[in-house]
Amino acid sequence: MNFKRKIVVLVSCVFSFLLLEHRLRKRPDVVTITDWLAPVIWEGTFNRQVLGRYYGRQNLTIGLAVLATGRTADQYLEMFMRSANKHFMSGYRVVFYIMVDALSRLPDLEPDPLRTFKVLPIKGDRWGDFHLTHMSSLAEHILGHIEDEVDFLFSMTVNRVFQNDFGVETLGASVAQLHAWWYFKNKDIPYERRPKSAACIPFGQGDFYYDGSVIGGRPLEVLTLIEGYLQGVTHDHKNGLNSTYERHLNKYFFTHKPTKLLSPEYSWNTALRPPAQVWSVKATRLSRWYF
Hints:
The chain is α/β, with parallel strands linked by helices.
């Protein structure tokens, strides 16, 4: 990323925080700011018009990466792409990075001058593990070209349907998604507790439990997260352990605090009934299978 783009990203993050800070008091029913002063984005904590006027002048490009292989592509990709094309960063330049194992799986989409679709072919699950395939492939593409093409990057699972505007209020240097179930349950959180695992968060420690189906931030911040995950997997493999991707993700965000958290409104599970605190569901996951 060139110097000008870095400045734009930095100013955008600072502005976003300052703009949101005075709005946080409007949602006393939920956590709106963390102990480390990162905003938690809920409906009612931001002003779309003000954000739109500001970010509309920044000439931003946002990336959205998705891996869709085998049956998951057949079942979910078309719904994901059509809904994302409509609701994800509407009015801004977006590059969709679609990682597929067969070009025939791609849906037909209406052309749009603000939407670019880049197909990144992969050869199935190269390690027999969906998460390793996704993260390793994405890391390669971030280094190869993505870091020079977009200011912010999101990676999401394909079993998702966008229902309302998923906009610039979500932008930040390092963005984490709160887990819909564990945010409200908030006990017996399934962190990795085995001391020998790289994903271990000791008993009595931890803050939130994060949903692995959405990550975001500056491209190089996303790359750093991926590298941390891959190093953790390698460490565990050498020790005969096999923790989950989501537990590794939670360990990463425990030691590298995200600068912005998305409320469960941005990744609601259709198996759950939305409580009163959920004012506006932005996107849903269509099954209990998640990243």
